[in-house]
Amino acid sequence: MSTQSTSVVLLIGTIVIVSLKKPDCTAVKADYDGFKLCVTSRRGMEDLSHQNLTDVPSNLSNNTQYLDISHNFIQSLNEAQFSRLFQLCFLKVTHCGLQEISPTAFIHTPALKVLNISHNDLRFVPDISVKKLKILDLGNNLFTSYRIPESFQKLSSLDLLSIGSTAALSVSYNDFDPLMNVHVDHLVLGGGLYWQNYDSGSLAKLKSLQKVSIHASFCGNFRMFEKLLVDLNVTQAKSLRFIALFPDSCHVDGDPFKNLRTMPFIQNLTIENTWINSSFMEVFLKNVWLSSLYDLSFVNMTYNEDTPDGFQFLTINHTINLCSITFSGVNHYQYKYPTFNMSFEAVSRLTYLKFSGSGMNILPCRVMSALPSLETLDLSDNLLTESGFWWFMCKHTSVFPRLRRLSLSKNRFSSLSFISQKMHEMKTLESLDLSFNSIYLDGDCSWPAWMTELNLGNNNLGNSVFRYLSSNFEKLDLSKTGITAITQEYLSHLPKLTYLKLSSNSIQVIPADLSLPTLLSLHIDQNALTSISREALAGFSKIQTLKAGGNPFVCSCDSYWFVATLNKSLLLDWPLDYTCSTPPSFAGLSLSEFKTSELSCEAGLQVAVALPVMIVISAAIGLVFYKCDGVWYTKMLWVWIRMKRRGKKCSNILKNASFDYHAFISYSHQDSDWVDSQLLPSMEGAGFSLCVHERDFVPGEWIIDNIINCVESSYKTLFVLSRHFVQSEWCNYELFFAQHRAISVQRDSLVFILLEPIPTDCIPKKFLRLRSILRQQTYLEWPNNERKQQVFWKSLKSMLHMADRSVALKDAALGILDQVPLLTDNM
Ligand SMILES: *[C@@H]1O[C@H](CO)[C@@H](O)[C@H](O)[C@H]1NC(C)=O
Ligand SMILES: *[C@@H]1O[C@H](CO)[C@@H](O)[C@H](O)[C@H]1NC(C)=O
Ligand SMILES: *[C@@H]1O[C@H](CO)[C@@H](O)[C@H](O)[C@H]1NC(C)=O
Ligand SMILES: *[C@@H]1O[C@H](CO)[C@@H](O)[C@H](O)[C@H]1NC(C)=O
Ligand SMILES: *[C@@H]1O[C@H](CO)[C@@H](O)[C@H](O)[C@H]1NC(C)=O
Ligand SMILES: *[C@@H]1O[C@H](CO)[C@@H](O)[C@H](O)[C@H]1NC(C)=O
Ligand SMILES: *[C@@H]1O[C@H](CO)[C@@H](O)[C@H](O)[C@H]1NC(C)=O
Ligand SMILES: *[C@@H]1O[C@H](CO)[C@@H](O)[C@H](O)[C@H]1NC(C)=O
Ligand SMILES: *[C@@H]1O[C@H](CO)[C@@H](O)[C@H](O)[C@H]1NC(C)=O
Ligand SMILES: *[C@@H]1O[C@H](CO)[C@@H](O)[C@H](O)[C@H]1NC(C)=O
Ligand SMILES: *[C@@H]1O[C@H](CO)[C@@H](O)[C@H](O)[C@H]1NC(C)=O
């Protein structure tokens, strides 16, 4: 590097003292940080600002996470107002004329992380002790001192404390003591006044400070400012910001920033909302160049050239640390181009330069080659045009030798083809920002191969823009460019695309045939998409981030896949920015709360699901049926139902009749074991009276007579069927039935219990009746399984239950028997 000083004259276009009106982005950003900390659903948000409220509404939902009641007339805050809001995380009560906050006000809101009560009339710093509080803004109140209450010791999560008053003129030694053990990262202090006193050591106690913003002036007493810098050096803060340090007509005595040279920790310095003279600038920058500063910013500065030759900064004989300079918002006091006569070495290490909001309309010739290490140049928000940026009087040998990123956003550029040509001069440029210009497509573009990133956002270009792009582009921002459709044809010219922003256009569909296998990120929010289908995203095989909020989604099956299946970690703005717009019944509903079932949405699926489900269910039923002897149970049930039905039918006949026995039991001797051990105990135990032939037959009578007697005095006749019974006993009954054929008609008085399986083949042909009974399966089968035996007993008992014992039915029964015609059989 040459040691010889080379002078550079920077000519900067002027506008006189015209304040370039810009939105106050810092406030929006601060609120946004708090918002991000707190809000998980739009449902939890209540914006009740500017409502002329005189109290906190009492009907707020207990899910409220975010409450903005600023710009109202609420004079005090107390416990009762927040008693139900236990999820409250963000509370903003600014511009309300607040005078009093009860120490217990936030006792029911333990989740509170952000509390903004700036711009009120609080006369004392209120007692606040919410453990989770991270951001506390007490700026712009009417405290008479900065004395912090003891309760602040409990704010163990506090990151940002902003405290300011238009009535406190001094900082006393013990004011910040309660914060000594609180890990405050960022302190914003002051109300923009001239401080009258600062006690040395007051801020030095806050050892955790990383960033400090001081909003105060020290005009006429910069000794106090020097003491403050010494204290901030002790805190080892890395980033300092001074707001309104030099107001209009501030008398600056001496060299207030002299201490900067011996503050080894400081890296970033921002000077905001101040008036700066070129004479002061020379003195100040000497300190900066000798300091450890890495980043210097001037924000909203009014620049007054009070030295006759403008700004002169000519010698430098040491290495400098400064790498980044920002001028954001420069108002010029004189109606002329300011002069910067500056040593080449002083800027030789600069990698970042921002010169924005300055009214510049001609880029000084030497800038292009005099900044040898510059990598990023931001000239946004000026008045540059093609001819002003490439000023005809300038002759360049090397244009921005290391420049990689150039922002020409918010200027007056128009010709894309001209710019694309000119980019060939910048041999290292990768990224160009032309957003917010008046670009039109005026002919073929030839972009250099090394350029990979282009931002054309907020220019009125239309769909044809795709034809003016380079196939080397990897990152492309086409937000708000009037695009109405994207097609594979357009995008096939961009084979290397990894980032594509298409926000705020009028795109209605992502075509299903779109294929961008290299794409990692797609922003297609604020368009006219009604749904995003699986097919549409299938072409983006590598996609990692997708932003698609703010589209008029249709909450129907079209959105089913997107809502239910898509991995939401892909989505940057889920769920806050996704709402249903149609059908009307769902309008405004958050898409994340839209529920529909897969089954009701996918026809193929319905079949695909229904079929296996049917098969599985059938198989399961079959298995259960088989495993649990469903056949047996079904048979039992069938018999039982029939018995019941018949029972009902004849209950009329039997209503007035009564019997001596519930049942007559007929069985073979071989089966007496079962009858004695099972049947009699369980039936007689349940209160049934049974006629058993061994026990109850009258000795000496012919067996058939005995049987008839027993049958006739019993409500039912129970046959215990087994092979033995068939072989030995049945003949008696066939005979009996032959004599009293009618019994077969009155068959519900007969109950058959099958003790063991009897194949019909084993039954002699002559036993017609028995064969017919077994064929019709009108018998109860004795099961081996104990549980089934319970069912068996239940069935049996219910069959015998109808009998009424008090009156004999002899006559009725016999009457019925006689009416029935004889049946022939082979006996
Ligand atoms: C508090 O609200 C005011 C007024 O809107 C805003 O300027 C400020 O940035 C907010 N403070 C924080 C820390 O968000
Ligand atoms: C609040 O009061 C002012 C003055 O009375 C009125 O102009 C304004 O419309 C009111 N705002 C609301 C939201 O009611
Ligand atoms: C609360 O009550 C006011 C009227 O007093 C009404 O306008 C508002 O919608 C209600 N808010 C909620 C969340 O119920
Ligand atoms: C919130 O309030 C509703 C009634 O408004 C109540 O049903 C619900 O239990 C409350 N939630 C909690 C967590 O207390
Ligand atoms: C800042 O602190 C360092 C040591 O921590 C010390 O060497 C230096 O003199 C201090 N500078 C000022 C201005 O107090
Ligand atoms: C700037 O110069 C004016 C006179 O031109 C003077 O009144 C003012 O105090 C100076 N301000 C600073 C910050 O140097
Ligand atoms: C300091 O400046 C650098 C470079 O501009 C920036 O990246 C960094 O975030 C700043 N640090 C603080 C604490 O502001
Ligand atoms: C810019 O600074 C001036 C004081 O120099 C102040 O009056 C004005 O409000 C500031 N503008 C913004 C946008 O902060
Ligand atoms: C560097 O320049 C300063 C004046 O700006 C001078 O006082 C100092 O002696 C010079 N140091 C060297 C090493 O040349
Ligand atoms: C810049 O400074 C050099 C060296 O002092 C001087 O020769 C030159 O005339 C100055 N240029 C302007 C425009 O003041
Ligand atoms: C979603 O994707 C992320 C990473 O891309 C992964 O960690 C996460 O497990 C996925 N979630 C589901 C439910 O697949």
Automatic annotation (TrEMBL):
This is Toll-like receptor 1. GO terms for cellular component: plasma membrane. The chain crosses the membrane at residues 603-626. It is found in: Membrane. Disulfide bonds join 365-394. PANTHER family: TOLL-LIKE RECEPTOR (PTHR24365), TOLL-LIKE RECEPTOR 1 (PTHR24365:SF539). Belongs to the Toll-like receptor family. InterPro entries: Cys-rich_flank_reg_C (IPR000483), Leu-rich_rpt (IPR001611), Leu-rich_rpt_typical-subtyp (IPR003591), LRR_dom_sf (IPR032675), TIR_dom (IPR000157), Toll-like_receptor (IPR017241), Toll_tir_struct_dom_sf (IPR035897). GO terms for biological process: inflammatory response; innate immune response; toll-like receptor signaling pathway. Keywords: Disulfide bond, Glycoprotein, Immunity, Inflammatory response, Innate immunity, Leucine-rich repeat, Membrane, Receptor, Repeat, Signal, Transmembrane, Transmembrane helix. Residues 1-27 form the signal peptide. It is a single-pass type I membrane protein. It comes from the Eukaryota. PROSITE patterns: LRR (PS51450), TIR (PS50104). Residues 659-800 form the TIR domain. One of its GO terms (molecular function) is transmembrane signaling receptor activity.
